[in-house]
Automatic annotation (TrEMBL):
Pfam families in the cross-refs: EPSP_synthase (PF00275)
InterPro entries named among the record's database cross-references: Enolpyruvate_Tfrase_dom, Enolpyruvate_Tfrase_sf, MurA_subfamily, RNA3'P_cycl/enolpyr_Trfase_a/b, UDP_GlcNAc_COvinyl_MurA
Family designation: Belongs to the EPSP synthase family. MurA subfamily.
Phylogenetic classification of the source organism: Bacteria, Bacillati, Bacillota, Clostridia, Eubacteriales
Main location: cytoplasm
Protein name: UDP-N-acetylglucosamine 1-carboxyvinyltransferase
GO molecular function, one term: UDP-N-acetylglucosamine 1-carboxyvinyltransferase activity
Binding-site positions, phosphoenolpyruvate: K22, N23
Domain of life of the native organism: Bacteria
Entry's Gene Ontology BP terms: cell division; cell wall organization; peptidoglycan biosynthetic process; regulation of cell shape; UDP-N-acetylgalactosamine biosynthetic process
Annotated Enolpyruvate transferase domain residues: 6-406
Protein's gene: murAB
Species this protein is from: uncultured Anaerotruncus sp
Protein EC: 2.5.1.7
């Protein structure tokens, strides 16, 4: 079993370059099937979610050509069938974006029910509401979601909840629907805007992405394009918090500072210094960590995907911080792992009361999801002694080359492969 082994105590110093946004690329790669053409995608992050999506595309008959470390050409001219099987889709929730893009391509799609991180119920009722409003018939049987339409017609859709996934999936299905589609109460995250820009570069007609209302005029054909993915807001935020949590001084390069404003605001309130440049941001800390209250909200609020990382830093703040999860039902499971390291956290539903302690101690812990894993890495860097992190596959789904990047910043961290149980005895 692979683990991260972290020796705590080092302050992170130096420069780190941020990769392409995971939550943008996992929508943009499925979106390529909307054209029977070639797309060149640049600034692709080196993460396992991307590899899985390439396998799904190849399973459908697309061809992938690696042009360099961060650029691929995807040819979707010939797809054999509009199906993403359980075997292909089970490792990642975002495979359900093929529902919207295959519907948009050929008016039908069959995709396995989504998997993904485990922090509460993750319904898809809003996705289905959108597809049905456009004229698709959606059924679920045998673990597969099947969507089929004689004709997709533009519609006025009001989402009951702000949902990144539903906004993306319905946008994908609507770009070729006949007439005007209006989406209201939509998500406004940077990756929503990035997908809309990508689709428009393919010939779509989408306006208002990043605001509360998106208007889509259906077009008949989408063509191939060349497009560069935006930098990852959450990867950047994670290194910002890691720098502030370890009293470091780090220049984080290839970022869009505007996407980081809510994170910057909270780090400054915690006593860190943040300096913004055109496409980089510097975070350093000399003063003690001050308590800060956090409430996660859809963009432009504080990102839920930064909640665990911020809480990790606040475990050693002066005073007590209140962290409220405003997006997910149950995104506090990771706090049990922080408590194994000496953190003092009381959780009541969506609220965590984090009483600052003078130190954390290294311990064996488990990543319960992608961002929880990042939080445990930060806590391990802050702790005295050694922290062993299991289930690191979650972390590697969304953070490219994270060990190399942290070691380059002075962290003492390595990935080991531990043979356990009967295997160990047999060897
Ligand atoms: C996306 O998940 C992200 N994943 C998540 O990031 C992120 O936490 C989330 O958006 C919120 O920003 C990807 O982009 C691949 P939602 P998604 O639909 O789309 C409810 C990470 O760490 N809801 O915006 O699944 C839902 O229960 C991952 O990178 C419905 O009720 O999230 C939740 O309470 C983890 N019905 C809220 O909306 C629906 O049909 C927001 O969910 C859909 C969602």
């Amino acid at each position: 079993m692979e683990k991260f082994v972290v020796q705590g105590g080092a302050s992170l110093r130096g420069e780190v370059t941020i990769g392409g946004a995971k939550n943008a690329v996992v929508a943009i790669i499925p979106a390529t099937v909307l054209a029977k053409d070639r797309c060149v995608i640049e600034n692709i992050p080196n993460i396992s979610d991307v590899t899985n999506l390439f396998h799904i595309l190849e399973g459908m008959g697309a061809t992938i050509r690696i042009l360099n470390k961060t650029t691929v050409e995807i040819d979707t001219t010939h797809l054999v069938e509009p199906t993403v099987t359980y075997e292909m889709a089970r490792q990642m929730r975002a495979s359900y974006y093929f529902l919207g893009s295959l519907l948009g391509r050929c008016n039908e799609a069959s995709v396995s029910m989504p998997g993904g991180c485990d922090f509460g119920v993750r319904p898809i009722d809003q996705h289905i509401k959108g597809f049905e409003a456009l004229g698709a018939n959606v059924t679920i049987d045998g673990g597969m979601i099947n969507a089929k339409a004689d004709l997709l017609l533009g519609s006025h859709i009001y989402f009951d909840v702000v949902s990144v996934g539903a906004t993306i999936n319905v946008m994908l299905a609507a770009v070729k629907a006949k007439g005007l589609t209006i989406l209201e109460n939509v998500a406004k995250e940077p990756h929503i805007v990035d997908l809309a820009n990508f689709l428009n570069s393919m010939g779509a007609d989408i306006r208002g992405a990043g605001t509360d209302v998106i208007k889509i005029h259906g077009v008949d054909i989408l063509h191939g394009t060349t497009y560069s993915i935006i930098p990852d807001q959450i990867e950047a935020g994670t290194y910002m918090v890691a720098a502030a949590a370890t009293y470091g001084d780090v220049l984080i390069k290839n970022v869009i500072p505007k996407h980081l404003e809510s994170i910057t605001d909270k780090l400054v309130k915690s006593g860190a210094e943040v300096i913004e440049y055109d496409d980089s941001i510097r975070v350093r800390r000399e003063a003690p960590i001050e308590k800060v209250n956090i409430k996660t909200m859809p963009h432009p609020g504080f990102p839920t995907d930064m909640q665990p990382q911020m809480t990790a830093m606040l475990t050693m703040a002066q005073g007590t911080s209140i962290v409220t999860e405003g997006v997910w039902d149950n995104r506090m499971r990771y706090t049990d792992e922080l408590k194994r390291m000496g953190a003092k956290i009381q959780v009541d539903g969506k609220v965590a009361v984090v009483e600052g302690v003078p130190s954390l101690s290294g311990a064996p812990v488990k990543a319960t999801d992608l961002r929880a894993g990042a939080a445990l890495l930060i806590a391990g860097l802050m702790a005295q002694g050694t922290t062993y992190i299991e289930d690191i596959h979650y972390i590697e789904r969304g953070y490219e080359n994270i060990v190399d990047k942290l070691v380059a910043l002075g962290a003492d961290i390595e990935k080991i492969d531990v043979v356990e149980g009967a295997m160990a005895k047999a060897l």
